[in-house]
Amino acid sequence: MADDHGSPCFEHCVFAIIPSRDIPPYRITELAQTLEDHAGEVQEMGRKGIADINRLTHFISTTSDFREYSASRELMIAVVTPSWITASLLKNKQASIRPYSPDPMLFFSQVNLSCADIPTGDKDAIVGAVLAMGGMESSSLTKITTHICALTMDNPKCQQAKEKNLKCKIVLPHWFDDCLRLGKRIDEGPYELPNPEIFRLNPEDAVPIPTTAHMQGATTPHPETFPISTDLPAPRHLDVFKDKSIMLSDDLGISSRLRKIIEDLVRDGGGLITNSVHNADMYICHWRAGRDYVFASRAGIDVGNLSWLYHLIAHNEWTSPLRRLLHYPLPENGLPGFKDFRITLSNYGGEARIYLENLVVAAGGEFTKSMKQDNTHLITARQTSEKCAAALEWNIEMVNHLWLEESYAKCKLQKLTDPRYLHFPPRTNLGEIIGQTQLDPAIIESLYFPEDPTPSPSDTKPLRRPIMREKDRNMPIQQQSGESVEMCDQEDMDMRDTEEQRLTVRPNSASRPRSSSKTTVATPLPNRRISAGKENNTPSSTGSRSAKDRALSKLHNLAPDIALYEKERKRKGHVWGGERAANKMEKDKSLERSSSPEDSNGQRDSSDEDVPKSKRTKIGAGLPPVEIRLLITGYKGWLSNPAKEDVDKKKLRKLGILVVQDPTTCTHLAAPKMVRTQKFLCALATGPVIVSSEFIDTCIRDGELPDTDDFLLHDEDSEKKFKLKLPDAISRAKANKRSLLRCVPVYCTAEIPNGPETYKAIVESNGGIFSVYRARGGSTIRPTKPDEDDGPPEPVYLLTGTRPEERKLWDKFTEMAKAGNMIPRIVTHEWLLDVAMSQQLKWNDRYLARAE
């Protein structure tokens, strides 16, 4: 890779190379020699890890799935792929780190983009997205260019790439748009010029079901048989358990014969089997319950299920149990909200289908192979199948698998209205990105093993490792890369005798766990604890009790100093002390003298409702309560500049302004003028305060929250155009309380311009009943007789365009409406837009698509 005694490109750099399948031992030797030839220093990876991780500046790895990854983020150690070394040597200086990160969140990290005949605005947006997600961009075509974004092959860049036979892909901008909507990188094949599949074939045409390696060995939480790896020689020496102690929990429900086989494999590989969780390095269990699970999780011991253990045996390589959803113990009673769900699948096959079936059951839902009208959800990889058509007819929720995966990963039911869960690229089977979602360790900790609120001062036994808490994965990428990971040392693992222990249930792969009527409750004893090292701690004599009382008294006197030490030990950066510490202590004492506990403000930021209690004080420290929930539409100040948007949103939050995306939760709406966009009309239904976009600029510029009355939106031209007064519309919206279209059925053709989803959001925001009409099956309006109704017939609306395929539905819709004793009104989309903008349910024959 380089000549001996090359340039000192890596001077003052200390590297550690993580071994994996992609970096075998011989490759490690080559990389280490190259780094040392260019003034770099390489530390060897031992079985116990890095000897001195604090000296490292770089990890070389093809994956973020290694033990030291969390520590690297905490210590701000760069993690790069081996390609970074090559790029640095080509430049004769250290290359940028971000494009070579193995972080799966940076899904454009291997993309080097050059744009061709793309309009300036679209080009800026695409380039900004690629850079934000770890890619690179160059204006000229180079040998390292991987993608050319173009609309046609006529551009000189495309011709040059074709003539020189460069190994770069020429793709439509649609590919970048679909990747960003999903938050995942999909295959470029359907978007490649000169003959892109998304234009050449219909969305309804068949698409092969893809295969993916992300679910390998993780399709079920409780495998019935040992997995056999075909890509590794057998027999082989198993060393993944070398110098490790493994504890197998009783809740695994495995036979004594299988347990003995596992124990023999561990011992033959240099590991130990233990019956005490206090001595374990790995704890294998099925449920996220029980004292041993809580202790192991708090102690930083690797906790996984039987599927994870089999994966380690099959591949002889350590992987985090949090990387794959079904490698971690299951929630004993499922997830909140999934109990009443009946879920079925479509367009998934092979291991992907098995994986999703087991994930539905693990989340607490009921899986059905066939779909009936009592199904609640359809999870599909494409929006084309008989089940999809039936779901639209029966108003069954239809989403992609990301909704299920992220609900399970975040231990909370995710909103079905999130655009990521409703997006289906036309010629892509989303099975190709299945299994990439990882569990969030901070959420798991807050729900299943929160910090012990009453630590015992008598237990001074230190833990093996700190528990690493990663930042929220929903946080923007710019924040993730710049912020470190919080480290929390759990110094006391005592558990009260009075803590109720749930009865261990043996796993059953065919059914969900049922709660047992038997519960073991320990008898409470006054002022007594169970320490991490002992189950009983009986005082030996009165003299020993007196000595312990004196020791406890000293500890109480030292409590303030201990608390200050703990605070500073967790501080990021250099050690804090000296005059700065003294001034801080004096300031705290003066505040303590001048204020009482009753003076504290008990309010908390409403935007932190979903943040675990143990982290609210850290995340929301110093932030004022939310006074304005601001929805922004049409604002151009952040166009193609996500970094500025992130900074400005933080400034607004410090002023008490929270920028929201859900129109139903906003209190204020900012827009340059009155516009009939989906976001504007959905927000208008809530009756918000509508301000001009200048309000945002003023807040950011002045750093103060001005009076919103000074920035109320005034748009006389639009008011004349729409024939209404904006203040009157807002007043009516407040009176309507999002019920303008209550009990009003609104149908829509599937081929209507802008798509049915646009109008669905507007109708439902105003309380209406929305359905896509395809004239399939029976009537969705209950037939009635005229004499059965107390009042005159009610109207029913069909939103439609004027395409021939839409006109074919008009007669059938009219027949269906009249059979249900309702007045059919086949209208253009102008009717809905005018109604939503004026907040009045008005009617005029000019809205008709044709005369009745």
Mind explaining what this structure looks like?
This protein is an alpha/beta fold and 852 residues long. Among the domains are: 14-100, BRCT domain (Rossmann fold, 3-Layer(aba) Sandwich), CATH 3.40.50; 112-200, 3-Layer(aba) Sandwich (Rossmann fold), CATH 3.40.50; 215-330 and 492-502, BRCT domain (Rossmann fold, 3-Layer(aba) Sandwich), CATH 3.40.50.10190; 342-441, 3-Layer(aba) Sandwich (Rossmann fold); 628-716, BRCT domain (Rossmann fold, 3-Layer(aba) Sandwich), CATH 3.40.50.10190; 745-847, 3-Layer(aba) Sandwich (Rossmann fold), CATH 3.40.50.10190. The chain has 26 helices and 30 strands. The strands form nine sheets. It has a four-stranded parallel sheet with strand order 2-1-3-4. The chain has a four-stranded parallel sheet with strand order 6-5-7-8. Strands 10-9-11-12 form a four-stranded parallel sheet, sandwiched between helices. Helix 4 (120-132) packs across helix 6. The N and C termini lie far apart (78 Å). 34% of the residues are buried. Residues 229-235, 456-545, 572-587 and 589-620 have low confidence and may be disordered. Pfam families: BRCT, PTCB-BRCT, RTT107_BRCT_5. One of its GO terms (biological process) is DNA double-strand break attachment to nuclear envelope.
